[in-house]
Write a structure and sequence with these properties.
The complex is a heterodimer of chains A (481) and B (467).
Chain A lengths: L6 H9 L5 H19 L2 E4 L3 H13 L11 E5 L26 H8 L3 E6 L33 H8 L5 E6 L5 H7 L2 E4 L19 E6 L2 H11 L29 E5 L9 H16 L3 E5 L4 H19 L19 H8 L5 H12 L10 H21 L2 E5 L15 H6 L5 H6 L3 E9 L2 E9 L4 H12 L10
Parallel strand pairs in A: 2-3, 2-4, 7-8, 7-9
Antiparallel strand pairs in A: 1-3, 4-6, 5-6, 5-10, 9-11, 10-11
Helix pairs in contact in A: 2-3, 5-6, 7-15, 9-11, 9-12
Chain B lengths: L2 E9 L40 H13 L7 E2 L2 E4 L9 E4 L13 E5 L2 E12 L3 E5 L7 E5 L6 E7 L6 H18 L10 E8 L6 E4 L4 H20 L8 E5 L4 E4 L12 E2 L6 E2 L2 H10 L4 H12 L3 H9 L1 H10 L5 H15 L3 H6 L4 H13 L4 H14 L3 H8 L7 H14 L1 H9 L3 H12 L6 H12 L1
Parallel strand pairs in B: 11-12
Antiparallel strand pairs in B: 1-9, 1-10, 2-15, 3-4, 3-14, 5-6, 6-9, 7-8, 10-11, 12-13
Helix pairs in contact in B: 2-3, 5-6, 6-8, 7-10, 8-10, 8-11, 10-11, 11-12, 13-15, 13-16, 14-15, 15-16
Classes of the chains: A alpha/beta (481), B alpha+beta (467).
The structure holds zinc ion.
The site of zinc ion has 8 residues of chain B, from loops.
Chain lengths: 481, 467
């Protein structure tokens, strides 16, 4: 049984009777049990998966209508709610939180007969880019287990990369899908803000984050996007995409497209191997008929500072509800005065979350907002204007996804500022609401390098076409686990 | 000069659902924590889903208070911790990026005085705290979230009131207006609440919160003015502070926490995009606005010659004016108004009685017409009304059952008149020269018939008999 197949291949094989869902899921579960001690992608494994598989096989046999996922094994980042299952956000604060409802994306995938093999690891409340801030321990990079898988959707990237599932859903607030995708050599995509419903995604910085798929191929991403995108009455920020088919014309190519190479994303601190991979990507894009040209977006310099100011402010508000009064973990409320209770109960939040909550209490506060929060909003709007201007000249913008290679576990955890700089190439898409994708491009010293492409708002289809074109020029070795 | 300003909170009780979810806006009929869902409980991952109907209703209030209404409105988060607040922030409105609240400046006439409105905002009501246990040491706090997320409109006035009487008059006019708009039922417990700020000449502004009813508000304002004046007369400085109304002791007490020091860290609610309320929508809302109380009053006076005071009472209460507007004809309008203001108001003076009343406009129309035609006397009509309100039976059936019909039989009436003439020889003599005395004799006939003699027929017959 080959677990290393794409989503589209899986659907084809099940449809034609090449494989049974039960066999595939059974082998997948065996494989998960085998590699998990090394990788720790999962926070919870769904032991009902095999039953779900049998149900779908029965449906297929009896000629019943089967959803387009045909029992595809998918992992879900543990900040997305699945009804009646624990959703912890990798936090002790939500240790016992069982979601009483399905996120919109979950509902849509269930309707298409996807199988959720488990909930996967993340940095606590999606704050971080290595999974080292998970309250339940970090995940390991399958390419080299001494290295981080990236984050915050590290568990998602690991599970796809190590063949523990075919695809995964993560969330991307400042690169949290693209960064681990790049570090683990899978495709990671953040759509235009509003393209995928956030209902059921536990908010970290709600004004800029999106759910996004992590897959083996760009086509697989398009396949999933067809299922999970679209307007949702439960999320007022969603956009009507008129049931766009992202898979059709994916082979369109990029002949004649103008691509801007963002100067500020290849500057100081960039790893030599990342730089040469990026240059190689440029020549491949040109060989496909695109025209590449350098473009300067000087607001990118301030983007990380603005990003942390805005996300901390929103996090301070979004996470305020975790006072342990209505749900959370065992800590009886009796005998406490309200304020002293929440002060004590919130000690269950981890160090990084606490750090950002404190910042989030400070930067928008009276007397400081002008210097920090409002200034950050100004950077956001200037950056958006710059990028909109760039898109009048270019069809796409390109950069390495992360300027450095996956670092070692523990290497940067005590250096928050160094960690922050890892975000420099990814936060722009979030602050401006633009779609962006990371595709596996190269392996250097056994560690993956990803290339990022960005497009204008609602140009997700064109973005996927370009990503598919570049992807088809790449042949990478398989990960050894 | 004393300056009083008000912040009135009005729930949009006539809406079907809460501001951001589909739980009922009318939470009062539920058991504790039965009118809740993941959204209004602020469960992880849920998002607010704006009730567009609430936006329309709130806009209507703004228009009725002559406030400007912006093209686009925005929502903000007000961040603070409190157990009745499931998200530990409240979604409300603010005017920091220009006028983005549902209503801008406006004004309303109270008598001859113009009270200015500073702004109107749409927000969510928090849950409700229930304290159990007597001593403060053993007291426990329970939270009922049924109310959490109920659509609430906050109306902020300028400090244009000078005394408690003006406050009372304003609140009466405002709650009549809210009721007349059909957006809320102000008689529901907790549907309308208010905070006040009070400052006397040379003093500082003191906020009073926690006032349970409009009735208490007036008392609180009165107490606060007296307290401040007393401090002033003794040269004691009045502290700028927030005070709470102590419902039991009927006094204001200094709030322990310094609420003015709280920093709410307001910022835009990203989960609700700016809402456009285009000129077309606003025009439509304006055109659908129910007739105003003052316009009704004018109409009642000019079209039906109803006395100004009666018209005022009739128009200011939607229950009665609706009833009137469905019952009147050009001929019976004055009589209908009369029945409502002199008899009906006494019969259905509470919310419960109104809800129970079986009276229909058709009943009222019949009753007024029957009085005019002499079929039933005014006195008896009152009894008939009482019966109809109770049973909903048809007027004819009620007249028959209670024997309320007028004595219109000439022979029968003549018999009674003859008796009266025999018993009152002196009055009969006087009546021959002084026609006023004849009314005394009519009265005697009425006495004998328990008010059921047809008045015009009685007069006619009496005249015939005497002259
Ligand atoms: Zn609800």
């Amino acid at each position: 049984m080959n677990l290393k197949i794409s989503a589209l291949q899986f659907v084809e094989d099940v449809k034609t009777g090449n494989i049974s869902v039960e066999d595939f899921i059974g082998k997948t579960m065996e494989h998960i049990d085998k590699v998990e001690p090394k990788l720790h992608a999962f926070l919870e494994i769904n032991r009902n998966s095999l039953d779900d598989a049998r149900t779908i096989d029965k449906k297929i046999k009896s000629g019943e209508k089967v959803g387009s996922c045909f029992g595809m094994p998918i992992s879900i980042k543990d900040n997305i709610c699945i009804k009646n299952s624990k959703t912890t956000c990798a936090s002790k604060m939500l240790e016992n939180f069982v979601a009483p409802y399905d996120a919109t994306v979950i509902k849509k995938l269930k309707e298409q007969d996807a199988i959720f093999v488990g909930k996967v690891n993340l940095d606590e409340f999606a704050m971080g880019l290595s999974t080292e801030f998970s309250a339940y321990g970090p995940s390991k990079n399958p390419w080299n287990t001494e290295h981080v898988p990236g984050g915050s959707s590290g568990g998602s990237a690991v599970s796809v990369s190590a063949f523990e599932c075919i695809a995964s859903l993560g969330s991307d607030t400042g690169g949290s899908v693209r960064n681990p995708a790049s570090f683990c050599s899978v495709v990671g995509y953040k759509p235009t803000y509003g393209l995928i419903s956030r209902y059921g995604l536990i908010s970290y910085a709600n004004s800029i984050e999106q759910i996004g798929p992590l897959t083996r191929t760009v086509k697989d991403t398009a396949f999933l996007l067809n299922i999970i995108s679209g307007i949702d009455s439960n999320d007022n920020t969603t956009i009507d995409n008129k049931n766009e088919d992202y898979l059709s014309q994916i082979d369109e190519g990029i002949e004649g497209k103008k691509i801007g190479i963002i100067k500020e994303m290849m500057g100081e601190g960039i790893d030599k191997s990342v730089l040469s991979a990026t240059n190689e990507a440029i020549s491949k894009l040109e060989s496909l008929g695109a025209k590449c040209e350098e473009v300067s977006l000087d607001m990118v310099k301030y983007s990380v500072a603005a990003y942390y100011t805005i996300t901390a402010t929103e996090a301070g508000s979004n996470l305020a509800r975790y006072d342990n009064l209505r749900y959370g973990y065992e800590f009886p409320v009796e005998g406490f005065e309200f304020n002293s209770y929440i002060t004590k109960s919130r000690k269950n939040l981890g160090p990084e979350v606490t750090r950002r909550m404190i910042i989030g209490g400070f930067v928008p506060s009276a007397g400081h907002a002008g210097k920090y929060f409002l200034k950050a909003l100004k950077v956001k709007s200037k950056l958006t204007k710059q990028i909109n201007d760039a898109f009048t000249k270019f069809d796409l913008l390109m950069s390495p996804t992360v300027p450095i290679l996956p670092f070692k576990l523990g290497e940067k955890i005590n250096d928050p500022v160094a960690l922050f700089l890892v975000d420099v190439n990814t936060v722009t898409a979030n602050l401006t609401g633009k779609p962006a994708i990371s595709i596996p491009f190269s392996i250097s010293n056994g560690l993956p390098i990803g290339i990022q492409l960005m497009a204008n708002s609602m140009q997700d289809k064109a973005l996927l076409q370009a990503a598919h074109a570049l992807e088809s020029t790449v042949k990478l070795p398989e990960v050894q686990i | 000069m004393t300056k009083i300003g008000l912040e009135i909170h009005c729930q949009l009780t006539n809406l079907e659902s809460k501001l951001f979810c589909s739980c009922k806006a009318n939470y009062r009929e539920f058991e504790i924590n039965e009118n809740i869902c993941p959204i209004c409980m602020g469960l992880p991952g849920t998002l607010p889903r704006l009730n567009q109907e609430a936006v329309k209703k709130a806009t209507t209030i703004a228009m009725a208070l002559n406030c400007s209404t912006p093209e686009k409105i925005a929502f903000f988060r007000k961040n603070y911790f409190y157990p009745d607040l499931p998200k530990n922030f409240q979604i409300t409105q603010l005017n920091i990026y220009g006028d983005t609240s549902i209503g801008g400046t406006g004004s309303i006439l109270v008598g001859d005085k113009k009270i200015r409105i500073r702004r109107i905002q749409l927000e969510e009501d928090p849950g409700r705290l229930i304290y159990e246990g007597s001593s403060s040491k053993n007291q426990i706090t329970l939270v009922d979230y049924n109310r959490a997320g109920t659509p609430l409109v906050e109306i902020v006035t300028e400090p244009d009131f000078e005394n408690p009487k003006e406050v009372r008059d304003f609140l009466k006019i405002l709650s009549d207006l809210i009721e007349n708009l059909g957006v809320a039922d102000p008689t529901l417990e907790g549907a309308m609440r208010a905070d006040a700020n009070v400052s006397i000449e040379g003093g500082t502004k003191v906020e009073i919160k926690n006032i349970g009813s409009f009735h208490d508000l007036e008392k609180a304002v009165h107490f606060e003015i007296t307290r401040q004046e007393s401090l002033n007369s003794r040269d004691i400085e009045i502290a700028q502070e927030t005070r709470h109304w102590d419902d039991r002791r009927k006094i204001t007490v200094s709030a322990r926490s310094k609420e003015e020091d709280l920093d709410y860290r307001y910022f835009l609610e990203g989960d609700i995009p700016w809402v456009k309320i285009g000129i077309d929508t606003r025009n439509e809302l304006q055109s659908k606005m129910p007739e105003s109380i003052s316009s009704k009053k004018e109409r009642y006076i000019s079209e039906f010659k109803i006395p100004s005071q009666v018209a005022e009472v009739l128009s200011s209460d939607k229950f009665y004016s609706d009833l009137f507007d469905k019952s009147f004809t050009q001929e019976n309008a004055k009589e209908v108004a009369n029945i409502i203001t002199t008899d009906l108001m006494g019969l259905v003076d509470t919310r419960e009685k109104r809800e129970k009343s079986k009276l229909t406009p058709e009943h009222l129309k019949n009753l007024a017409n029957s009085i005019i035609s002499g079929k039933i006397a005014r006195n008896s009509a009152k009894n008939a009304l009482h019966e109809i309100v109770k049973t909903g039976n048809e007027l004819d059936a009620v007249i028959k059952e209670l024997d309320l019909g007028n004595v219109t039989d000439q022979l029968k009436l003549q018999e009674i008149i003859s008796q009266v003439i025999n018993e009152e020889p002196q009055a009969v003599e006087q009546a021959k020269s002084n026609p006023q005395t004849i009314n005394y004799l009519v009265g005697k006939v009425m006495q004998k018939t328990k008010g059921k003699a047809d008045p015009s027929l009685t007069l006619e017959l009496l005249k015939k008999n005497i002259i």
